[in-house]
Amino acid sequence: MYKCQNNNTTILTEMEALQELKQLNLTSEQLTQASLMGVLSRANCTDYNTKGGPGFIQWDNTVKAFREFCCGQYWVKFQENGLEGIISADKKIRILPSSGNAATGNLNQTPSNKNSKGIRTIQLIEKSIQGSLFNGYPNQVEDDNVETYILLYYNNNKELRMELSKPSLIKKGKIVAWEKRIIIKPFDLNNPPTISVPIVEDDIDIPVIRKFNEG
Fold first, then answer.
1. Where are the alpha helices (DSSP H) in the chain?
2. How is residue 193 annotated by DSSP?
3. Is the pTM of this model over 0.90?
4. Can you tell me the mean pLDDT for 195-207?
5. Residues 6+ apart with CB under 8 A from 49
6. pLDDT in tens, 122-159
7. In this structure, are residues 111 and 104 in contact, taking their beta carbons and an 8 Å threshold?
8. pLDDT by residue (tens digit) across 45-57?
């Protein structure tokens, strides 16, 4: 664990990241396989999909798989005003999956969300950081003291990179600084290891294809 000198970000990698996830009742395999399901769904898109279709399909299937792998005793589905993800059973932490830019999972760069966030996400992030400071915002989020984390994912034709990170500053819908980053080991899309993830009902094995489109 170390603090990034430029923005005072705590970055957790390898064993410390795994320990942090354990405290959250999560595993790196759950996050990796959920993100991989999104990649697999996007790989099935063609030129006949709508312009924004592949990105939406990847995000939608990532959220779906994330819920399937994580919801149970400790996590439940979160769905509110267009926001999708999971929230801890004690209502202390929520996690919202989002596509990230090429800096995702890179220790030496500051990542951001690929697409600008809407007012609801901005509200939740800023309230998580500052508390109840929403003077001037329409449709305020009332009595929401839940910490908001973002599951960022990014893939190219070589690897899938992910991190579970807590924002510390968002401007014009783009996250520009992070309080904490939990870096997940990259998933090699050309030579993938075998991973089996337990879920609430049955174990599943995820099929993997060897070539993926650019993320």
1. 14-23, 28-43, 53-70, 119-130
2. P
3. no
4. 50
5. 57
6. 888 777 765 433 333 334 444 467 999 999 999 999 99
7. yes
8. 999 999 999 999 9
> Measured between alpha carbons, how far is 78 from 94 in angstroms, rounded to an integer?
8
Across 169-207, b (16+ Cβ under 10 Å) vs e yields ebeeeebebbbbbbbbebbebeebeeeebebeeeeeebe
Q: Angle of helix 28-43 relative to helix 14-23, nearest 10 degrees?
A: 100
Rg (CA), the chain: 17
Q: How would you classify residue 172: left for phi > 0, otherwise alpha for psi between -120 and 50, otherwise beta?
A: left
Tokens of 36: 């991989």
Alpha helices in 45-177 (DSSP H): 53-70, 119-130
